[in-house]
Design goal:
200 residues; mainly alpha; 0% strand
């Protein structure tokens, strides 16, 4: 076992819950690990529905960064399979999970990609809240035994690479993509927009 992997496992065991962990703490961690991710589409939808053109552009960009990052994760998993803790009998698992590759974490990649895009796009308040939620989810998934800590660090790196790979493409075509998406939105939701329920 190399030094980095040994460090990864030791750090995992420091965070991972045990049979002596209070049930209330496990009870909090499970919904955090499983369901907080669903706040991301709600956040992006809210930015889109009630935001101006610049905010809508930011929402599209954030979504694309997250999608590119998760796509990269699938390729990494195909090239290099890293077992989850329960697959090697390490620690304790409190959350059922498929025995697939653990590195990098898709959940953490989504949160990191969205948070990075929002923060660098000037939406510091929303970006900060997204980052905080992502840290909570990352902790919960390690605590519950389905990820290693370095799966989370790897996710941040993947999200950063995805952001900077997308940046030149977005500079070239982001405005056109945003205008097209707004035109489609106005056509599909013309009635609630006319009623004043949604921002035009």
């Amino acid at each position: 076992m190399n030094t980095l992997e040994a460090f990864n496992q030791v750090l995992f065991l420091l965070i991972n819950g045990t049979p002596a962990t209070p049930a209330w703490l496990v009870g909090i961690a499970i919904p955090v690990a499983d369901y907080v991710i669903y706040l991301i589409p709600l956040l992006l939808a809210a930015i889109w529905l009630w935001g101006n053109e610049a905010q809508r552009s930011l929402a599209i960009r954030a979504c694309l960064v997250a999608m590119l990052g998760v796509g990269a994760n699938q390729l990494i998993g195909l090239v290099w399979q890293h077992p989850r803790p329960f697959m090697i009998g390490l620690g304790h698992t409190f959350l059922p999970h498929a025995p697939d590759s653990s590195f990098p974490s898709d959940h953490a990649t989504v949160f990191a990609g969205i948070a990075l895009t929002l923060l660098l796009g000037g939406a510091r308040w929303l970006g900060g809240l997204t980052l905080l939620a992502g840290v909570m989810v990352a902790w919960a998934r390690v605590f519950l035994g389905v990820h290693f800590p370095l799966d989370m660090l790897g996710a941040v790196v993947v999200a950063g690479v995805a952001y900077f790979l997308l940046a030149p493409l977005w500079d070239l075509g982001g405005a056109a993509v945003t205008r097209w998406a707004i035109a489609l939105y106005r056509k599909l939701l013309a009635r609630p927009i006319d009623l004043g329920w949604l921002r035009r």
